Amino acid sequence: MKFTAYERTLQGTGASRRLRLAAKVPGIVYGAGTPTMIEVDHNALFFALKKEAFHSSILEMDLAGKTEKVLLRDFQVHAWKPIVLHVDFQRVDDTTRLRKKVPLHFSGEENSPAVKTDKCLVQHVATELEIECLASQLPEFVTIDLSGLVRNQSLHTSDLKLPEGIKAVKHGTQNPVIVAVTTPKVEEEVAAPVVVAAEKGKGKPKKDEKQNKK
Predict the structure, then answer these.
(1) Which residues of the chain have pLDDT under 50?
(2) Furthest-apart CA pair in the chain: how many Å?
(3) What are the tens digits of pLDDT across the range 96-118?
(4) Whole-angstrom Cα distance, residue 109 to residue 60?
(5) Which ranges in the chain are annotated with CATH 2.170.120.20?
(6) How far apart are CA 75 and CA 86, in angstroms?
(7) Fold held by 2-92
(8) How far out from the chain centre does Cα 169 lie?
(9) CA separation for the pair 91, 88 (Å, rounded)
(10) Fold for domain 98-182?
(11) Taking the C-alpha atoms of 98, 99, 105 and 106 in order, what is their torsion angle to the nearest 10 degrees?
(12) How many Cβ atoms from other residues are within 10 Å of residue 61's Cβ?
């Protein structure tokens, strides 16, 4: 993905406020040299942030007639207004080693024995995964094949088959669950008891009838 940025010379709270009033977003590009202060068009950035690829892929930034490869690292938004306040990018090249969270896409779930045969429910416990790889290998997303899921199975981080050169980042001994298969609860149909009212005094004359015969 490509976007255009402009060099920013003025700094400080006042300068940033004036930029935002002019529908611009102050930002910074760091890594591989001296940090560069930039500004970008607010609306272009706002809609770009809605795209999954903008968060998890290498971007091409056009700055002062030069194209640089960068990665979105952080951004701040207003507490309740749809306004982007600041954005951070990192310069990268093909040899830069990265740690980055990428989205998880799931496939084959409907063809798994757990769903197709046993009618189980598949819960996506995690929707993103932190990975480590070279910048040139960074994927927009990682696809997880769920076609082999079986009843009561849990898929952990260590069970994922990742593309070559990409590995999941481990935090200590943690091995979090990515996908869990659960058996749906079957509601037992409890038959309502049939209450048969006993006919007391069946075959006997009613009290009123006895009194009339006296």
Answers:
(1) 188, 214
(2) 121
(3) 999 999 999 999 999 999 999 99
(4) 35
(5) 98-182
(6) 5
(7) Ribosomal Protein L25; Chain P (2.40.240)
(8) 17
(9) 10
(10) RNA Polymerase Alpha Subunit; Chain A, domain 2 (2.170.120)
(11) 120
(12) 21
